Every structure is written in structure tokens, then in C-alpha cells.
Amino acid sequence: EDFAIAPDQGYCLRIRTQKTQTEATLPISYEAYELCGTPDTGKVFKGLKRSMINYPLKNWLKKAGITKPITFHGFRHSYAVIQISLGTDIYTVSKMLTHKNVSTTQIYADLVNVKKRETANKISLK
Q1: Of 4, 12, 45, 59, which has the most beta carbons under 10 Å away?
Q2: Can you say how many angstroms the Cα of residue 70 is from the centroid of all Cα atoms in its chain?
């Protein structure tokens, strides 16, 4: 089963990370759960391979006129930066990304700090 009901009555998605093959159970929003549709028995994403995702993504980007290379790994990166930008603590973001060490997640926080500095420097008081 890919979905589970958490002790706090929220929804979770069980995953196996590609890089380390470790299993993790991550909370998802009710909206994300609904978008997946009502699960039958077994895995929700049964038989899903990376190529099955990246090929349609490339076609969508081409149709939208986007020439910048974008991957699903890039979405993971964007997720981290957006969460940190919205004030989610780095420890929680680290756990959601299944990083073993929070210092790996710190890279995303450093990117956010650079953007904050750039923003602060846009206003001149002279």
C-alpha cells in the first residue's frame, strides 16, 4: 500500500528513495491525496518508472515553450526552497526530503539567504 492514515489522522505516502533505497513514510496534504484519486488495493503508483515521468514532462515543457531544462529532481529542489522561504524549519524540510544529515538540506537554506540578501540590497536609501 502506498497510502496510510497517520496517527494524527492525516494522510501519508510510503516511498522508497531512489538514491539510497531507504523506505520513508511522508505526510501529504488532503488535496494531494484527493488528486491521486481513490486508491484500489495495492500500490498507487505501481510499475512507475523514471522514464515514464520524464518523457511526458519534456513534452509538456516543449508545448509550453519552456526551453530551460527542468527535471522532477528540480521539483524536489524547488519544494525545499519554497518550504524554507515560507518559514518551514530546516529540520522538518530535511526529514521531508529524507536527508540523513541536516547539513545536506542547509544548501537550500543558503540559497534562500542569498536571495534575501539580494532583495535587501535592491532598495537604496540615498
Answers
A1: 12
A2: 14
